[in-house]
């Protein structure tokens, strides 16, 4: 029996889809059977980031409306056998899916896969409710800016009302030199406001954008910082205790966060 | 049977009259005697208004009965009813009182978009994040960071206070008064308390330790009962 993890943020454009693609890829690299579900119906992106757009035949709405079996709609990844994608529909909208239907599909997939990673749409309406319905765990993605942290806070509040484990935090697109100058919120500050456990920190990296455009998640490239960050996040999801990467030669700042991680199992 | 028994004793004090009403007889008898007594006392032909305090002892009166009593007093002369005192409360009223006098502890983080509404005092163990809101009819004590909105004395108790371990609120509200954070970025302050200053007619923030000077009665049960 696998577990379902929803990746959410409230605010749009903070990197939910990229995070989903990369966590999924990194887990697959570690040999886990992974299924990605895109619940952003009407504005699907996950297939593009994964480079699987051309292979889609059926989608989530087809499954919900029982035109096809769940397995038939799954798109296998071109690189890993153990990685599959259940794409969103592009022609319908979010009201086509209900939380109950989502839960049924996720429960079915949990029999087969080790991890189900659910990409949540932005916002707190129907799409969010659908995405959260089947999840056992949640990962909240935020950027180091105030508006994004506010929305993350709101989302965490909503997740607390769901039957779900306390969410974990990924701080995405940190720019180290801006944090140093005090122009950007630092990780400690974000964690202290949101008061949830930190799962990982990903630096702002041009490679991520390049990789997304070429349909190859950055986690596949072994040499970039962001790739390492995503792989570490995947290992932490598996329960390993991995220290946070230090971005530059700088130490003082991250030893604090490392210490924070030291306490976690 | 009751003819020769005094049901109502009238006492004059500097502040006005005190009507002490026997609590064993029927309510109708009281009304009757009250009318009679007050018409007899028509000698109080003074210009100024006289305040009357009615002491009911162990008698329970409903709202309507209370109104009727007031009416009788007001009708007869230049008397005004200041207060009606009774030793008896209904369970409902008592639990209402108690609610207003209690400190309600709450262990959680109040996040953006969440609103907490409490009767009586609120003791929050956790933070109020920006966009979150806590309201109480009494005082608000936050053991944690107050970064959102806090509204104390929602029902109009302007003597309510808001205290926090770390104070960086976007707004403080006490009764009808509102104060907000300045437009420029500011650091918060530790262990401070906001209260409504009557002279300045605005909300001031001071050291937590100094609040005893402004609100010496903050912890007393009676204050809350009377305000409740």
Structural commentary:
The complex is a heterodimer of chains A (265) and B (228). With 265 residues, chain A is α/β, with parallel strands linked by helices. Chain A has twelve helices and eight strands. Chain A has a single domain (3-263), classed as Rossmann fold. The mean pLDDT of chain A is 91. Chain B is 22% helix and 36% strand. Chain B has five helices and 15 strands. In chain B, strands 5-7-9-11-14-15 form a six-stranded mixed sheet. The radius of gyration of chain B is 24 Å and the shape is elongated. Chain A binds chain B through residues 150-151, 153-154, 156-158, 160, 193-195, and chain B through 109, 111-114, 126-127, 129-132, 147. Chain A: Belongs to the ParA family. MinD subfamily. Chain A: One of its GO terms (cellular component) is cytoplasmic side of plasma membrane.
Structure, briefly:
The complex is a heterodimer of chains A (265) and B (228). Chain A is 42% helix and 16% strand.
**Terminal residue distance of chain B:** 41 Å
Biggest sheet character of chain A: 8 strands, mixed
* Order of helical and strand elements of chain B: EEHEHEHEEEEEEEEEEEHH
- State the low-pLDDT regions of chain B, or none: none
N-C termini distance of chain A: 22 Å
Tell me the helix content of chain A. 40-55%
Per DSSP, the total helix count of chain B is: 5
| Total domains of chain A | 1
Strand runs of chain B, count: 15
- The percentage helix of chain B is 10-25%
- Structural class, from secondary structure content of chain A? alpha/beta
**Secondary structure category of chain B:** alpha/beta
- Gyration radius of chain A (Cα, Å) is 17 Å
Shape of chain B: elongated
Arithmetic mean pLDDT of chain A: 91
Strand order of the largest sheet of chain A: 3-4-2-5-1-6-7-8
Mean pLDDT of chain B: 85
The CATH architecture of chain A comes to 3-Layer(aba) Sandwich
Question: If you consult CATH, what is the topology of the largest domain in chain B?
Answer: Pectate Lyase C-like
